[in-house]
Amino acid sequence: LGVFPRGPPAERRPLRWQAGSLCPVRRLRRPHPTQLYQHVPDSRWPIVYSPRYNITFLGLEKLHPFDAGKWGKVISLLKEEKLLSDSMLVEAREASDEDLLVVHTRRYLNELKWSFAVATITEIPPVIFLPNFLVQRKVLRPLRTQTGGTIMAGKLAVDRGWAINVGGGFHHCSSDRGGGFCAYADITLAIKFLFDRVEGISKATIVDLDAHQGNGHERDFMGDKRVYIMDVYNRHIYPGDRFAKQAIRRKVELEWGTEDDEYLQKVERNLEKALQEHRPDIVVYNAGTDILEGDRLGGLAISPQGVVKRDELVFQIVRGRQLPILMVTSGGYQKRTARIIADSILNLYSLGLIGPESASVSAQNSDTPLLPPEVP
């Protein structure tokens, strides 16, 4: 399985006492066997997807503003543009209970066996009235498959220099609570898997550019110095989690209606500073498109071109420093979101920031500002 055990954080490892000694001896726990870390042929790009990502059941998915079929639409658009074919994609696998227990509590996973809990997390009230076996199959299995996709993409990013999970980015979910359409903590899981299984991966940076605060991973990594969190979000909207904000090392709070120029300058400047303050072994980029103008839940006013430019900035800055990057697509509540994500991926390819030959990107551009430095 390509497993290189590193063990969990020292303070959480089980202890045993050595005879005749006052010092505890650490007992290293081997990672469990998983189907998520398997060899991927070089012929496949590190773009992870499964048709099982999409949630369609009796029209219930239409009761939430989230486009629960956007992931398949992104892939269809990339195929239409002749960028990808099925044989070039990595098929996501569903995360098992054992995989999920790397982060989640057993109690939380048991709560998901109640339809009421899932209805609350997904914000789709009629789910309350569905038998839980249907909820598991039609709602949670797609989310578990996306979660598996994020974990798989984490390893691919380390191996190839970059990876994109066309789903995932459930940044409101932590080890013991879900919310905001986020039932599994895929970002936390991807990082924990890397820490535990891949030699040389001991520090991570999360760059969360969804319009909402990423309180899930913030709660999970509270006090963990190995993980640096940069979060750029609308300060006035959900979740407003003050406790979780304590985990943010670089916090950029935006006002209603923030537009392209101010937004892009703040992203560039703060990302540069974040990577100077903490050089990670992996960057996890939560690329929510709910920053788009007209998104009634995000409350910002970024143009489609601004979203594409944002992703370009992040990839150019991160890859210019020879750092692996994992991108997840996260929030986005408009029908045109899929087109914009596809356009962004096409743009990254056209610039040589992703693709079969882009295992490394020259660092020569990393010292050159990509936008005029006007906004602090």
Automatic annotation (TrEMBL):
Gene Ontology, cellular component aspect: histone deacetylase complex
EC annotation from Swiss-Prot or TrEMBL: 3.5.1.98
GO molecular function, one term: histone deacetylase activity, hydrolytic mechanism
Keywords: Chromatin regulator, Hydrolase, Nucleus, Repressor, Transcription, Transcription regulation
Domain Histone deacetylase: 64-345
Pfam families: Hist_deacetyl
Domain of life: Eukaryota
Matching InterPro entries: HDAC_classIV (IPR044150), HDACs (IPR000286), His_deacetylse_dom (IPR023801), His_deacetylse_dom_sf (IPR037138), Ureohydrolase_dom_sf (IPR023696)
One GO term of the biological process aspect: epigenetic regulation of gene expression
Keyword Nucleus part of the UniProt annotation: yes
Reactions accelerated catalytically: N(6)-acetyl-L-lysyl-[histone] + H2O = L-lysyl-[histone] + acetate
Localization per record: Nucleus
Primary location: nucleus
Enzyme class of the recorded protein, top EC level: hydrolase
Keyword Signal: no
Function: Responsible for the deacetylation of lysine residues on the N-terminal part of the core histones (H2A, H2B, H3 and H4). Histone deacetylation gives a tag for epigenetic repression and plays an important role in transcriptional regulation, cell cycle progression and developmental events. Histone deacetylases act via the formation of large multiprotein complexes.
Quaternary structure and interacting proteins, as annotated: Interacts with HDAC6.
Family per similarity comment: Belongs to the histone deacetylase family.
Protein name: Histone deacetylase 11
Name of the gene this protein is made from: HDAC11
